[in-house]
Structure formats: C-alpha cells, structure tokens
Amino acid sequence: MTVNKISPDTLKARPWHAFEAEGNRFARTRSRSAAEFVVPLVVIVVLLASRAFVMAGVAAGVAAVIWMIRGFSPAGRRWLDKALGALAHWVGQAVATVLLAPVFFVMMTPVRLMNRLTGNDPLLLRSRDAPTFWLPSDLEVRRARYVRSMFCTERLIRGRLSLLPLATLGLVLLVAAEVGLRLYGFGTPLLYLQDVEVGFYPKPRQRVRHPGRIITINNVGMRSPDVAPQKAPGHIRILMLGDSTLAGTWVSNEELYSSLVEKKLNAVAGAPVVEVLNMGVNAWGPFHELAFVKKFGTFDADIAVICGPMSDCYRPLYGLDRLPFLPANRPPRFAIEQILYQLCWQFRAHHLGRPPWDETADRAKAQARLGIEAYVELVRELRRRGAEVLFEMLPTASESLGLETNREFQGLLVQLKQPLEPLGVPVNCAGAIFQSAKSTAEIYHDGVHFTRLGHRLYADYLAERLRQTSSRLKKALERS
Q1: Which label site among 208, 270, 397, 472 has the fewest CB atoms less than 10 Å from its CB?
Q2: Confidence of residue 184 (pLDDT cuts 50, 70, 90)
C-alpha cells in the first residue's frame, strides 16, 4: 500500500483577509477600468448638479492625472496604488477611532461598571467552573488590529510603506488641484488698493478671467475703457458711482448695464458722443464714494448718477480688514493660496461676529442716518465740481418683481428725499420693473446682483429714465 506524501505546497493556509496573488490582482481589468472611469464621472456630475463648480473642476483635474498615470506608467500605477492604499488605511483608522472611541468609552464603560457592581456575567467570563461556549476566537493583538481597521482598506503591498510614494502622490494631487483651480479662474483675483481716505478701490490696469466672464479695470480703477483727464469736445460724460450691483463682477465689462446704457444712448445720438464711467466697487457705501470724489474728482463728468440699493446707507467708511478682498501688495502666488485665504477669512469672520456698527438695531439706525448725510454731502461735492446729480436707487429683488414692498428701505428712501428735494436733485427707486420675469433666478444671481438678462433689462429702463430726467443729456441728444 502506497502512502502519498502530502507536500507542504499542497496545504496552504488562506486567511479571510488575504488579497489575490500579484498575478491575478489585475485579472478583471475590464470591470476595474470601467469603475475607474465611472466613479469619478459620477462624482463630477453630482458636484456639477450641486453647482459646486470649483470642486467639480478640481475633481476632474485630479481624475485626469490619475487616469494618465495608471494608463501610461505601470510603475506609476503601482506607486499610486501603494500610496492610495496607505492613505485609505490611515484615513480609515482615523475615522474608526473617531466613530468607535466615543461609543466604547461612553457606552461600554458604564455597562461594564454596572456588570461589576451587580455581579452580572452573561457570558460567564469570570466563572471558571461554569460551563460556557465562549471561546477565544483569535489572539488579542490580531483582534485589536483588525477591529481598528474595519472602516478602511487593507494595503495592497505588505510591509512598511516608504514615504516617497505618498509624498509623490501628494505632490501630484497638489499640482492637479492647482491646474484645475487655474483653469476655473482662481489664482488671479481682483486686487484692491488700501487707501487711508477712500478706504479701498480696485487696483488700476487689471484683467481678471473667470469662467464665462472677463473683468477689466482701466487706468483709474473703473470697469470702463481708459479715461482721459478731459473729455473730447462735444462729448457728454456720465459718472456712475455705486457698490457691487454697479461693479457687476458676475458679467464681463461689455455686459454691464453701464456699458449697455452707453451703447443705447449713443444709438439714439447717432454717434459715439456719450461716455459712461463705471466707478462701482464691491462693498462700497456713501462714505467711500464721497471720499473718492474728494480725492480724484469727477473726471470732467457732466452728469453723476449715484446707484445702489438703499442698504448702502448702513455702511461706514472701512478698509479691507473685514472684507474677503485681496490687497494689491500681497497677491496670491498660487490658486490654492487664494482658496486658503478665503477659507481663513470665513473662519475669522465667523468668530469675529458682526461688525460693531451693525451689532444692534439702534447702531444700525444711527449709521443709516450718517449714510444719508454722507449722500447729501456727496451731492454738494459733485455739484461744486460742475456735475448734474441724479439718484437711481435699486429696489430689492422682491420689490423689482412686484412681490412685496420693503418698508424699511422705503423709509430710508423717504429720509433721503427730504434733504435733496430743496436742492432739486431727483431721487428715484425703480420699483416693480421686472414683473414679467418668471422667477428671481432669471434676473438675479443671488437676490442682489444682476444676471446678464438683469443687466440688459435694467439698462433698457435706466437709459430711458436718464433721457427723461437729465436736462443736460436731453440737450446733448438734441444737438446731435
């Protein structure tokens, strides 16, 4: 009788957590490749549907880099898998610790204490003589190790991981994120000059590109073509002063309502004789506009139009300290740096709370009165420099759609009209001019700032309003 010897290679222990052999790991290449493409695409589509366009761009850039590395470099693919496996392992351990530690210490500690105090031993762990089916399933070291890793993946390659693949992966991801953010428009933000008198204003001669729009700043800090110190003979120059609703950073320069008003008035005149200067700056209020005119003048303007919502009355003269705008003397070198700056500003703004002038209703009312007084002083300053002055205040989004009337802002409008009526300065608020719109989203990006359609519709209204109200514009159009 022959007894076959059992070779040691015949019987092999195969633990439940073992991976496939190296040769079979990529046997299902087709299904794996499909998953590698489908999963990132699903993530990008979800981000786009959520209007998280920045995150979608970054995800697309990172996915493209990973696809290229895995597709064209076997060595890079192994390094990438190794680094991602280690990252998933470490992240999983952190998640498991965060999720399980509170449960273990908060729930299990009182339970075990009560069992001790009452003598309860449901599994008969402390009774050596009693019959029990409780048997140790594994070594304590192994149990602790695998329970700790239950929320993460196993590493593809055993042994200690060199930091070089992980550092390489981090560098690749940073480069991909930087490229994606640059393509989206970050890294070259609009820069502002700090000014003791004015507070702040855009740095002259800038060209900033964002998705779907280009923001151009001229030689004096305006969103207009370059301005000569003196206007050409026979021309009429209109200076518009206002806040972000006039600055219109959601659209390109040629799509601003100020630019469209200029085109419409020149079409009526039959010649390019009207210049419209857009001195709208994000977060400006009446004190900023007054200080700017005192320092830089009116640029030989015949007409000055003060624009913006009545809520600008609440703004005192402030600088960039409490604003998320980047100063011109410290521009970001990287797009990621700009994102970090914005995140740090949001964190700081959250912890600093509301500004001192807006902490209570009484302070807000007092500040609004000061803002109205600054508007009256601005009118006097503009007239002293030879400009005809008009007020064209914007209604709130709900008012412009004819949905409701904002009593607070209407009260401020009445307070502004009272001191200006004796001076013969017309103060107008557009009212329900967008009643035909189906929704706020058609006209406004965020309930305050116009979309492209909003700029076009408001330009139609404002051009006609200026023709009816401004005596100087009437005469100029009649002469032409």
Answers
A1: 270
A2: confident
Classify residue 352 by burial, with Cβ atoms within 10 Å: 0-12, 13-18, 19+. exposed
Query: Does residue 144 contact residue 97 with C-beta atoms inside 8 Å?
Result: no
How far is the first Cα of the chain from the last one, in angstroms, to the nearest whole number? 123
Superfamily of domain 192-479 in the CATH hierarchy: SGNH hydrolase (3.40.50.1110)
Exposure string for 385-421, b = 16+ CB within 10 A, e = fewer: bebbbbbbbbbbbebbbeeeebeebeebbebbbeebe
Q: Specify the residue for token string 């502002």.
A: 192
Distance CA 378, CA 294 (A): 9
pTM for the predicted model, two decimal places: 0.70
Give the side-chain half-sphere CA count within 13 A for 159.
4
- Residue 306, SS3 per DSSP: strand
pLDDT in tens, 18-66: 444 444 444 444 455 666 777 778 888 888 877 777 777 778 888 888 7
Full DSSP string of 185-227:
TTTS--EEEEETTTEEEEPSSEEEEETTEEEEE-TTS-SSS--
Cα angle 246, 430, 381; round to 5: 55
What residue segments make up the domains of the chain, in order of their start? 29-121+137-184, 192-479
Average pLDDT of the chain is 83
Q: Rounded CA gap, 375 and 291, in Å?
A: 11
Question: What is the 8-class DSSP label of residue 271?
Answer: S
Poorest-pLDDT segment among 126-135, 222-231, 364-373, 409-418:
126-135
Q: Which residues make Cβ contacts (< 8 Å) with residue 37, sequence separation at least 6? A: 67
The whole-number pLDDT of residue 32 equals 54
Q: Specify whether the CB–CB gap between 21 and 12 falls below 8 A.
A: no
